[in-house]
Amino acid sequence: MTLFNIAFTNVRKNFSQFSMYLGSLILSVLIYFTFVSLAYTKSIGVIFEKWGIGGQGVFMAAAIVLILFVAFFVFYSSNYFTRSRKQELGLYSLLGLRKDQIGRIIFYENLMMHVMAVVSGIVIGVFFSKFFSMLLFRIMDLSINGGFTFSVSAILSTLFVFGLILIVTTANGYWIVYRHSMVELFKADVREKNPAKGSLTLSIVGLLLIGFGYFLATRSIEDSIFWTEDFFFSSMLFVLFGVILGTWLVLRFLFPYVVYKLFLRKSFFYNGTNILTLTWLRYRMKKTAGTLTMIAVLSATTLTIIGALSSIYTNIISFAENSNPNSYQTAWSTQTQREKIYDVIRESKSHTLVYHDTADVYKGKVIDKVDEDLPAVDQRMDEFSVMGLSDYNRLARKLDNDSQQIKHLEDGEAIFLSPIGRFENKKRAHLWMKDPYTVTFKNNPTKYSLRIKDIYHHAVFNTDMVYSALVVNDRLYQEISQKTMPKHIDIFQVTNEDRAEVLDQKIQQIVGGDPYDYNRELSSFYSNYHMMSTLIGVIMYIGMFMGIVFFAATGSIIYFKQITEAVDERPRFEVLQKLGMSQKEVRTVIAKQVLPVFLIPLILGICHSVAAMIGLSVNILYSVGAPVVVSTTIYTVFFIVYYFVCVNTYTKMVSSGDD
Predict the structure, then answer these.
(1) Which of 73, 210, 428, 560 could be a cystine partner for 424, CB 3.0 to 4.6 Å?
(2) Strand 413-417 and strand 444-456: pairing?
């Protein structure tokens, strides 16, 4: 029998053992191939080029990061899988095979796994390519029908990447074989001779490191002395490595300390199967600490990526809608241009004109002295566009979007319209409203003192056309209008404004300029909204796939750890079953043993992620609550499902089948 036949027979007869490793490979190939395929898809490239956002560059940059992580993920899985088979490799040596022959068997097995994974991953990727492209378009909120994608460049890239990974994993298998003698290969991983008792002192140190890392992470970068230019880099390193070190100390010393204290409580120790669970935990803690730390960090990373990107996505999409209340706004349009805009709207079969209105605003400059030593975030506004109370109320009623009406304003009082106001902290709002502003207007010698009475978190003009709008009473507005040149704005509200690409281009041709670029004389809901939704949608899509890879890595690390331990623990459970332990009791013991591996890293990962999200909310001033709760809940549910899968697999591997 040739070495290839031995490898083939081994894979065929023990396919259940290879299945998880194969599944990890297929998932890795699928995600990488999907990524690269989308980057090479011409239709998506046209969209990115149209909006000028460099989306393909983002995809390719993410693909490079993905290569590094997938390579680590596959290498780690392969290393764990090969080490779990040391006794099998020792048997080959006992039968007379040389180490180079054993290495070739490992190579053939890896080759078969990679070939099956690459073929399966590419076929699944092509088959589901329409779904993935439609998902991307849905996240970007574009009405485009995605098609099946078959990219030769993506296939060649996938073959090259996973060919390199095959070489690395095979070399690692050779290294394991050559490093260990036959006796060492046969010897199972032994428990620690001296069970860990833990250390309350080092546990407290670990908790303090985590606590101070949380403290730094949740501080405002603009206000905290720890995030000044002199300490920024060191603070960032401490948050990263301090929390990781603290996590390891907690898992290495606090968890064993708790187990040791439970071990000393005889009433608990001798209750049911606790004697088996606690004994197993005591003799596994040293080797488990590093793995649990990695699981906790990966869980925190996954939750932070998904939570942060979903929060930013939700808030930016909301901002894009709130900051563009009108379908179209034109500045200084002539009567001829208005008639032409009317005509193209009437000719459109998908859109009808809801209303047309006009308003004049007056741009003023704040002349108050500014303390230039203060950071920009602590400085007040430097210019405003002023509109009248009657114009505001009329436009607000027409928008029918819960815009607040203004009943009365005294001379010198103003309402600030800020669609981003909901993202501003109380300090910024206080700065806006603290003291009156002294405002002047071009060719107007009068200085006006305006005090912001309130801030409304909505607008009646698109913010790229009229930014920082102040509403003043009609008497003051009339006074300003008599001495100041206005900015005349025409407003066109149409139906189906979010699907108005063709209409956009026609109106743009009338006004002039690039339909997909900033235009001082035209503001379009469609262009402004989709420019933001496309960019943030691409980032969200990439983050979603990154989160899947991190979750898969977490699951694989746990799974291979449990499989390795199941192989080592099988003789112990066989003895226990011969002594009368039922399969139900075996499952109970395994469930208790496996639970800390899932529960403790999950809790620590959620805590780390929550601290990171609080810091994100404090510094970018976005609301992160709902997206974080949803993503954390989904992640936890998947983690629980995976826990039961591992318990079932572990139980089957150690059970004799006798009840």
Answers:
(1) 428
(2) parallel
Q: Provide the residue type at 284 as one letter.
A: R
* Rg, C-alpha atoms of the chain: 32
What residue type is assigned to position 124 of the chain?
Answer: I
Q: What is the mean pLDDT of the chain?
A: 80
| pLDDT single digits (tens) 216-235 | 988 877 777 887 777 788 88
Give the integer Cα–Cα distance in Å for 34 and 179.
38
| Pure H helices in 180-231 | 182-186, 200-217
d(CA 547, CA 306): 6
CA atoms within 13 A on the CB side of 194: 2
Half-sphere exposure of residue 569: CA atoms within 13 angstroms, side-chain side: 27
The 3-state DSSP class for residue 328 equals: strand
Q: What percent of the chain has pLDDT over 90?
A: 17
C-alpha closest to that of 415 among 391, 377, 381, 387: 387
**CA-angle at 612, arms to 611 and 614, nearest 5°:** 65
CA atoms of 630 and 628, how far apart (whole Å): 5
Reported as a pLDDT band with limits 50, 70 and 90, residue 209 is very high
The DSSP code for 180 is S
Considering only CA atoms, which of 371, 535, 403, 554 is closest in space to residue 469? 403
172: three-class secondary structure by DSSP:
helix
Please tell me the distance from the alpha carbon of residue 616 to that of residue 312, in angstroms, as a whole number.
10
State pTM to two decimals: 0.75
Distance of CA 200 to the CA centre of its chain: 35
How far is Cα 339 from Cα 204, in angstroms, rounded to an integer? Answer: 75
Helix, strand, or coil (residue 471): strand
**Cα distances (Å, whole numbers) of residue 647 to 212, 430, 600, 654:** 36, 56, 16, 11
Distance CA 624, CA 307 (A): 8
Looking only at the bridges linking them, the beta strands covering 522-524 and 353-366 are unpaired
| Residues paired with residue 454 on neighbouring β-strands, in sequence order | 415
Q: How many CB atoms lie within 10 A of CB 286?
A: 14
The one-letter amino acid code at 534 reads T
What count of Cα atoms within 13 Å lies in the side-chain half-sphere of residue 654?
32
- What amino acid occupies position 218? T
| CA proximity to 546, closest of 363, 324, 372, 301 | 301
Residue pointed to by tokens 């939570």: 307
Which amino acid, one-letter code, is at 44? I
Return d(Cα 412, Cα 565) in angstroms, integer: 76
Return d(Cα 211, Cα 388) in angstroms, integer: 52
Query: Whose structure tokens read 């006992």?
Result: 94
> Which amino acid belongs to residue 98?
R
* Residue located via tokens 């009082």: 413
Each residue of 413-428: pLDDT tens digit?
A: 999 988 765 445 566 6
Please tell me the distance from the alpha carbon of residue 480 to that of residue 362, in angstroms, as a whole number: 8
Q: The tokens of 153 are what? A: 């460049």
By three-state DSSP, how is residue 335 classified?
helix
| Ramachandran quadrant class, 271 (left: phi over 0; alpha: psi -120 to 50; beta: rest) | beta
Query: What region does 495 belong to: left with phi over 0, alpha with psi -120 to 50, or beta?
Result: beta
**Alpha carbon 599 to chain centroid distance?**
22
Two tokens, residue 546? 């990154």
Q: Report the distance separating Cα 365 and Cα 440, nearest Å.
A: 5
Q: Which residues contact 128 (CB under 8 A, 6 or more apart)?
A: 34
C-alpha separations of 634 from 303, 351, 630, 631, 637 in Å: 10, 39, 6, 5, 5
